[in-house]
Amino acid sequence: MDLAAIKTLHDEKKIQLVDVREDDEHQEGYVTGAILAPLSKLTSFELLNSLPKNTPLYLYCASAKRAQIAKKLLAPHFPQVEAPPFGFNEFKEHGFCCKE
Questions:
Q1: CB 90 within 8 A of CB 29
Q2: Are strands 57-60 and 81-82 parallel, antiparallel or unpaired?
Q3: Does the pLDDT of residue 21 top 90, yes or no?
Q4: How many domains does the chain have?
Q5: What is the pLDDT of residue 97?
Q6: What is the CATH number for 18?
Q7: What's the pLDDT at 1?
Q8: CA-to-CA distance for 86 and 79, rounded, in angstroms?
Q9: pLDDT in tens, 49-79
Q10: Cα separation of 98 and 88, whole Å?
Q11: Mean pLDDT throughout 11-26?
Q12: Distance, CA of 8 to CA of 11 (rounded, Å)
């Protein structure tokens, strides 16, 4: 799926973006509406319970590498998890509303 399709789904609130970068990276900028769930904390019961179960999760990080790892960790708990091959800067470049 390309970023234009992901943006449409995000704008229509049909997916939940999840930022798996660390807190300090997230504070430097993030996609508006994304949930922060750092990869280093993804095994936390509290964090897992805070993510929506009935909405497809689309994970992102700086380069998509951590998002791929996070997808493997989350897949047993969430029926719809995707890790598109795009990093945060690509989301910004494709018109996602971002906070910096």
A1: no
A2: parallel
A3: yes
A4: 1
A5: 82
A6: 3.40.250.10
A7: 83
A8: 21
A9: 999 999 999 999 999 999 999 999 999 999 9
A10: 9
A11: 96
A12: 5
Range of the domain at 81: 3-99
Q: Is the dihedral of CA 43, 69, 24, 28 positive or negative?
A: negative
> Are residues 86 and 95 in contact, defined by beta-carbon separation less than 8 angstroms?
no
Task: Please indicate, yes or no, whether the overall pTM of this predicted structure exceeds 0.90.
Answer: yes
At 99, the pLDDT band (50, 70, 90 cuts) reads confident
Tokens representing 43? Answer: 């095994």
- Chain centroid, CA 53 distance in Å: 14
Secondary structure class of 33 (helix, strand, coil): coil
At residue 95, the pLDDT reads 87
Closest of 51, 62, 58, 57 to residue 21, by C-alpha: 62
Neighbours of 94 (CB within 10 A): 13
What HEC string does 58-97 produce? EEECCCCHHHHHHHHHHCCCCCCEECCCCCHHHHHHCCCC
